[in-house]
Structures
1.
Amino acid sequence: MSVLLLGGSPSVSSSSARLLQHVGDKLALHGHRCNTLQVRDLPAQALLHANFDDPAIVRATALLLDADAIVVATPVYKAAYTGILKAFLDLLPQDGLDGKLVLPLATGGSQSHMLVLDYALRPVLASLAARFILPGIYATSDQLRWNAATGLTLDAPIAARVARGVEQFSTELFALPQQRLQAQHTLHSLAV
Ligand SMILES: Cc1cc2nc3c(=O)[nH]c(=O)nc-3n(C[C@H](O)[C@H](O)[C@H](O)COP(=O)(O)O)c2cc1C
């Protein structure tokens, strides 16, 4: 199944992007095809001016619409998700996540804002008609250690949460075609 890894950090050297890639690597081991979209790579002017027709925005939107599932990662900025992530989500069709599974990830400077996932990001994902939003995974920057030679090391509780989240996401993802068929069948039965 196809998964879009959507990164919402403006930083080049980003802990949330590393966590996102880590989750993507694990999903690839389960046999899923992952594409990555970092919102920071989209043209800033198009994002700020809500230019729906910009070719890079059109391509990014198509990438998202084509995916069966999304893993979205954001750092906490001022007790919420980032502005650039919102700028991109604002450019999606109203039902842009229709039928998709979503796994939200966030990193923050402290545990104080871990509810950002539930109180800020989840309502936006739900308003875009996501089919099933899995419990989010939150890590503080010091629970993620980066070394250019050895890569990303997660504290044990985060590693366990990531393992559980990936397992559940992958299971739900493989069940998606069957659920879609059942939904179509139900709609068809209601129509006749
Ligand atoms: C502008 C800005 C605002 C931030 N606001 C918060 C905040 O409100 N709460 C928090 O826990 N961390 C906050 N942080 C810390 C980041 O969330 C944290 O360092 C995160 O891991 C950075 O992720 P990134 O490397 O992917 O950008 C803020 C950082 C920046 C640069």
2.
Amino acid sequence: MTRPPNLVLETVLTRRSAPRLTEPAPNRADLERLVQAAATAPDHGRLRPWRLVAVSGDERARLGDTLGEAADSPEQARRAAAKPLRAPLLLSIVHRPVPGHPKVPEWEQLAATTAMVTTLSLLLHSHGFASIWRTGAAVQAPQVRKYLGVDDGEQLLGWLYVGTRCASDTADRRPFDTPTRITWHHTCR
Ligand SMILES: Cc1cc2nc3c(=O)[nH]c(=O)nc-3n(C[C@H](O)[C@H](O)[C@H](O)COP(=O)(O)O)c2cc1C
């Protein structure tokens, strides 16, 4: 396929998760703008079944303390406490499905939430930022849910760690020749 360079294709092909992130992260106004744009991701029924809880500054240490409280051993607690400090901004991804929706089953609502997160990570990348979605057992810990204000009926899907990729880290370009997963059933009339 020989085509002129395409910005969207370039963005998709060059986005890579960033395990190590540093300042700057987007400011509040920029983040609002990017989240509004990400909210245009496909979403059956336009339910927007998600919300984000941003944690930055010294609150990251408080979140770390809470993650430590939820850990199983002192060693795990020590490591858990340091986790939120790996990026200047953490977006806690809260999935809030509408239960029993007459047209949109919950799996579709989860698909809409993940589509938004994926779109947001691409938008961040296209604006010079980087991110990584991280999960773990802590998403179910009552202390963590309480600290973030996650209600019954809401599901914490982890955190999008956001910032700027550390200069020493390279983001390998994704190969574009992986086999596709398309099986064709096609006839011509
Ligand atoms: C739902 C979800 C959960 C993830 N959880 C973690 C995680 O807990 N720890 C981690 O290092 N990466 C996590 N990742 C990031 C993946 O490891 C990463 O996307 C994958 O290695 C591919 O790398 P790439 O994003 O650079 O293409 C998660 C990604 C998704 C979509």
